[in-house]
């Protein structure tokens, strides 16, 4: 349990809490418990929960499950639109100030680690858009894009989401200009952060991921993807994450229904391993919490 604020700190801004962990690690429940304990409001650090319609596939929390705790940056964009790390930084900074003004504690919770990095340390250096290069890169698989990044900039490869094609292509665009993705604006965090890290053991997490996927399929995930696909089209669908891309393949007749659960389980476990790698860099500053 995180200790309460010292009595002598009443005139200082509430401490910024951050709940981080891989998919299916229990971040949502822990964030709500902390908000109830500390008088907090939750800022979602999730690159897909910002979009309306993506409910089952992103495991979006319901109003009932919020238990009266204010949640921010959920259902704030149309899925046809894009939401960037820069958008998140702008919104999160505004929300942190507003929450503090109300006398509450800002609690950032989610698994989009790139957003945490962007908020705390700034965005990577800019590079001009290269439509010719982008057209070429779009022909490659996500695995091939990741391989190219790893060859040219292993440091960036260790931090990037290997399934986010838009971000992979952008990284290669920056690498084409700079030779590598330059370090961020600062090595010192812009906020004082108290980390709560949930990092279940390998076998536990794999079982949780598979169980959650099975539950999502039972809840109607395929039907949700079908609705989203009809609204945004196949190109945009592929940008909305693994669940939407893989089930989109099934809807187009490119894979069987029986392949959905094993394929998604395997790919989401791979993504969770990437999240776990990012968590290791917090070792010197994070306070690791026991998994509930």
Under CATH, the topology of the largest domain can be stated as Rossmann fold
Count of spatially separate domains: 3
Q: Unreliable segments (pLDDT under 50, ≥5 consecutive)?
A: 1-14, 284-292
User: Helix count?
Assistant: 12
Biggest sheet: strands, sense, closure?
6 strands, parallel
Cα-based radius of gyration, to the nearest Å: 19 Å
Amount of beta strand: 5-15%
Report the CATH superfamily of the largest domain.
Answer: P-loop containing nucleotide triphosphate hydrolases
Number of strands: 6
Distance between the termini: 12 Å
Describe what you observe in this structure.
The protein has 292 residues and is α/β, with parallel strands linked by helices. The chain folds into 3 domains: 7-122 and 187-200 and 277-289, P-loop containing nucleotide triphosphate hydrolases (Rossmann fold); 131-178; 202-272, Helix Hairpins (Orthogonal Bundle), CATH 1.10.287.890. The protein is built from 12 helices and 6 strands. It has helices at residues 27-38, 85-101, 113-121, 131-137, 142-152, 154-157, 165-178, 202-219, 221-232, 234-237, 242-251, 260-280, and strands spanning 16-20, 40-44, 71-72, 105-110, 193-198, 287-289. Helix 5 (142-152) runs parallel beside helix 7, helix 8 packs across helix 12 (260-280) and helix 11 (242-251) packs antiparallel against helix 12.
